[in-house]
Design a protein that fits this description.
Three copies of one chain form a homotrimer. Chain A is α/β, with parallel strands linked by helices. The first copy, chain A, contains 13 helices and ten strands. In chain A, 36% of the residues lie in helices and 13% in strands. In chain A, strands 7-8-6-5-9-10 form a six-stranded mixed beta sheet. In chain A, strands 2-1-3-4 form a four-stranded parallel beta sheet, with helices on both faces. The longest helix of chain A has 20 residues, at 353-372. Chain A is globular, with a radius of gyration of 20 Å.
């Protein structure tokens, strides 16, 4: 393991991650990636520790990834299935978390459909003065930090396998395509990509871009809708109102965080919004596609899957606009033929989707290791 | 581990527990409590053994507690989830148990909504002459021995952390408040508390006190309902008809066990029933609250949660009646503001609720150890 | 472990199993059976490997058996529960399998209600050039190889515990009774029993025998229905159209595989069909009963369970027709009093049902060992 000064007790959001922290995660994950290629893929690092997967919102994929990561570190794992839980008996979420704390849990991996739940649990643990760590495995439309970190690791190890680090993305153009508005994956990725110095281009139909900003566009600058609108880089204090650790159960306001208005431009813009796919793809180094929830259509935010695919689905011809060695990412599970054409998804020349899953185990081992190694 | 002569093969009920057995569990749990404070919280005691959690009635909390206890002892665990089981395919419960036996299970931890199921399975295992142990994790309205033992351990370690033992409770006044009638937790606790020499005061609305006794009161001694009625200590043979290990699937009669009538008074009474909370709380050392099933209201056994809380909910002002250093217990999950006020629940000066959960792991390790150590 | 030349990468079907392969499984299972009788029932063979139980169709019994087998070999296990999986999110089965591959799964144990799914996944893994193994844990009405292998192991160890091998069944008469038409267990057993040189007699009501053959009988040779009809031994190419590993998701044709017509008799017939139970039982050495799905009745394939039991249920009196030391098997879970009388099921003189479950763990350890030992 690389020597490092990691002082973070929880991983709830990437909003305040420092470059040193990103690099520590990347380097630690790289060393675990090496472990995973060995004959015996296990290390005794977290032996005797308990990792509880508290998935109030079910997810086989992410839960399995965390479970396998924990087992590779020799931790014991507990799975909490919301469906059969005492939640149905009226217990509060904080009480459930405190019960797992009292049972001796060392790290809680928490997924919940409400934004801010992991923050609230972490705040309560800190208030109690206990050493348990909380790892956000996706909370509502807020953040999904381990997903963004594995995306980052996937890209950086592609560029420099021997030494993945944040600065490798400086100046790269990354397109994020799809349901930005409702995506915790996009929100976490925006933090890490902005921090890396990349140029981040968000492309989506107006109904799937952050609400207040798109309203602004439609009312104020209607006919500029064809253009790319450069906006300021996000700053933690004004853009994504991360719930304070004092408040009991803070939520992201409905409709997503409020984007800054162009009236207050900031120098060195790195974040761009597009109502069309093409300007985002133009000369892009990486294309991150987002999963489309089919429920969006019943909410009349989308015409049809076919039309969505035609306009925003990633296909081989559309990739012609990008850099020649462009790569495509997707957090999974993929709706084949919707966010991305089926043949492209299976083409290892372009698709990083399988690498992302493999990176996921290494990155989650790294996070569990960094959070847990000080405890045992 | 303390040297001990533990000869019990199953833990089904506390009705016939001896003082020596209680003390063995308490001392063994104390030594595991010490293990849990170490850097590496695992011992290899049950390595290679299989603990199967057969939860025909789902319970995340108790199942997780047993699972973590088994893993701390290095046992392998199997979880049986009733919902997805072959039970839906028409197999009998005994056949399911025999299947897990044939797979090599060493200890079966069984929860079922019918009273007597663990007894019936244990009887079948004994009939087959096999060495598998059965641990009752809650059966209908019969018993929940590990819960009562962890309550006992919580209280005893509070009084004398270095040497928890049954006699510490001698002469203490313990109030058990709530849905006594339907509570397996109350039934198991009554056995252990009576055995300890404590004075046990049960307080509940008449509809939630054991049926036949309350009927007797209303008909025969109606106007004494305001008083505390001392009744005889329970004796295993007459009070709680524990299913004999010969009968196939014996059940507690509907309406709960029959209490002895005051016509046959017995000397040295330790058990008292109250239709009001106050006489039970008066000078109490410990207050055990019970979970209120909201279904009781639809069955017209309760007026409203608000009225229940007003009359029987434990609050800071009501605790003034108790001894100054009174402590409150609850088996969880708690309906905040119903059985106990929310602020009191979170007040470590009064609430032992978190300690109970922690004690649960140590006590279950002790039980698994005592049942399993002779096998491997 | 016996030295062996095992070259099989997946276990999908017994159709092309060689005698050497059967014997390797039997001998390996025998050595694990010996491990299971030791004080410590674990071996470190698969330490660091991941066995993923991908049960798209739920099964507590088979999943637990594989899970315990994997844990006895010190593998880490992942359980995939179809109900809470991303399958509901629209991901394809192959994508799910590839996700588990990318997470580092070494062996996938797959159950699915559609025939051919494990084959399709194995074909995809081979196409990708990866070393993951696929083990069919039951696919539709196609095959259930580990069940047939444990049946074989149960019978062979009964005959010669020290040296179980395929040839022990040569010339034995085995009756398979019940819903042959819809049974993957019967299909896999037919392959192994034919390979052993046994005489296999299938008995069922005409509606539960393979469709095309029974239609042929009813039309062409109606009044011969009382007789036993010798048909040719099954040959892999014509009888059971095993899905080729090239085709994407091949299925057994609806109504089951087509049996050869008696017009094309083949010498040395080993397979016999009966519309009545008695000729199948006559002098039988072993009787394999099959589970009856109660749904068959709503499909009007059966009159009533009572009538089925009267005609095809195995009872003590009916066993008089068999060899004196006849034994009865059932894959479980049993509908007591339907496929087999309740008292017979519990009689260790006749019933091998518990032995089958125990054999299941040893045989599954053997399969996981044979598939996994070359990987780590």
């Amino acid at each position: 393991m690389p020597t490092t000064t990691w002082n973070r007790h929880h991983v709830l959001s990437l909003a305040d991650f420092t470059t040193a922290e990103y690099d520590t995660v990347l380097q630690t994950a790289a060393s675990f990636q090496e472990v995973l290629s060995r004959r015996t893929k296990k290390v005794p690092t977290l032996q005797g520790q308990v990792v509880a997967n508290l998935f109030f919102e079910s997810s086989t994929r992410t839960r399995s990834s965390f479970e396998i990561a924990a087992k590779r570190l020799s931790a014991d794992t507990l799975n909490f299935a919301a469906a059969t839980s005492s939640m149905t008996k009226g217990e509060t979420i904080l009480d459930t978390a405190k019960t797992y704390l009292a049972m001796g849990t060392d790290i809680m991996v928490i997924r919940h459909r409400e934004a801010g739940v992991p923050n609230a649990i972490a705040a309560e643990m800190d208030r109690l003065g206990v050493r348990v760590s909380v790892l956000n495995a996706g909370d509502g439309q807020h953040e999904h930090p381990s997903q963004a970190l594995l995306d980052l690791f996937t890209i950086c190890t592609l560029i420099d396998p021997a030494n993945p680090r944040l600065e490798l993305l400086k100046g790269k153009k990354i397109a994020i395509v799809g349901d930005i508005l409702h995506s915790r994956v996009a929100r976490s990725n925006i933090w890490s990509l902005i921090a890396s110095g990349a140029q981040v281009h968000l492309a989506a139909p107006p109904t799937l871009l952050p609400k207040l900003f798109s309203e602004f566009i439609s009312e104020e600058i209607g006919d500029r809708s064809q253009e790319s609108l450069a906006i300021s880089p996000l700053s933690p204090s004004t853009q994504f109102p991360v719930p304070s650790s004092q408040s009991p159960l803070p939520l992201i306001p409905k409709g997503g965080p409020e984007f800054p208005s162009p009236q207050s431009p900031i120098p060195s813009p790195q974040l761009f919004l597009h109502w069309q796919l093409e300007p985002a793809l133009q000369d892009a180094d990486f294309v991150m596609t987002l999963r489309l929830q089919k429920e969006r259509m019943t909410a009349h935010l989308l015409p049809s899957l076919r039309e969505y695919h035609q306009l925003f689905g990633i296909t081989r011809p559309k990739l012609q606009l990008c850099k020649p060695n462009v790569k495509v990412l997707h957090p999974g599970p993929v709706n084949r033929g919707v966010e991305i054409s089926s043949d492209l998804m299976d083409d290892p020349e372009f698709s990083l989707i399988q690498s992302q899953v493999t990176s996921g185990v290494a990155v989650r081992m790294a996070l569990l290791y960094l959070l847990g190694s000080g405890k045992a």
